[in-house]
Write a structure and sequence with these properties.
single chain; 219 residues; alpha/beta; Rossmann fold; six-stranded mixed sheet; 6 helices; binds adenosine-5'-triphosphate; ABC_Transporter_VariousFunc; Abc transporter, atp-binding protein; ATP hydrolysis activity
Length: 219
Amino acid sequence: MSNIIELDHVTKKFKNKLALNDISLTIAENKIYGFRGPNGSGKSVTFKTILGFVRPTTGTVKVEGKIIRKDVIFAPDTAFAISEYGLLEDKTGLENLELLKVLNEDQSSDSKKIMQRVGLNPNNPLKLKEYSLGMRQRLLIAAALLGDNKIIILDEPTNALDEEGQDFVAKLILELKQEGKTVLVSSHDKEFLDQVADHIFVFSEGRIVKEIEKQSGLA
Ligand SMILES: Nc1ncnc2c1ncn2[C@@H]1O[C@H](COP(=O)(O)OP(=O)(O)OP(=O)(O)O)[C@@H](O)[C@H]1O
């Protein structure tokens, strides 16, 4: 399958607010897609319509050929890190990942290994409410790595990270591509997206106003 995700003339209206205004886009397998644009331009709502968390007002979203909210409720083979779909404050990082495994009937992911991969110590006894913003961000990314999904959606994964943390996320995203994943990542940071993305969608006021295709992919 060449296009793993397709949005066809998608609009989303919240009361009087047109959050998405006729978005059409295609996502090919095993590439990294950057979503750039100012606050409120529609990046997160686009991700949520792909995931099936938000129902489009008009238009269709297909993931792996399935129409979201029609053929399936949620996007198949898709993991996400979106800060508002949170983790449990009263649990440790490891406990949070173990709970997600139970919820997802996932018996094969190695939570400890995944925590180490994102630079967190699985034996850290701190509860999430005691985590720094950067540690939270890393745990959220770890949650998206559970289940070995084909498509990974990362909403502002470098928020609250220092320069070292940002480089770390960039390297991780490039590794995910090497492993055959398709990654959708949003950021305000032009430099960061230029570093990782093969293709960039630039959003403004609910529209895609520009698309940038990188020649060779990796920087
Ligand atoms: N559940 C909702 N109810 C009402 N309005 C919403 C809802 N979700 C999003 N919006 C509005 O839709 C618009 C697009 O929001 P979206 O979260 O996609 O922006 P964004 O590009 O991801 O920005 P940010 O970088 O701030 O996350 C905004 O005006 C936002 O206020």
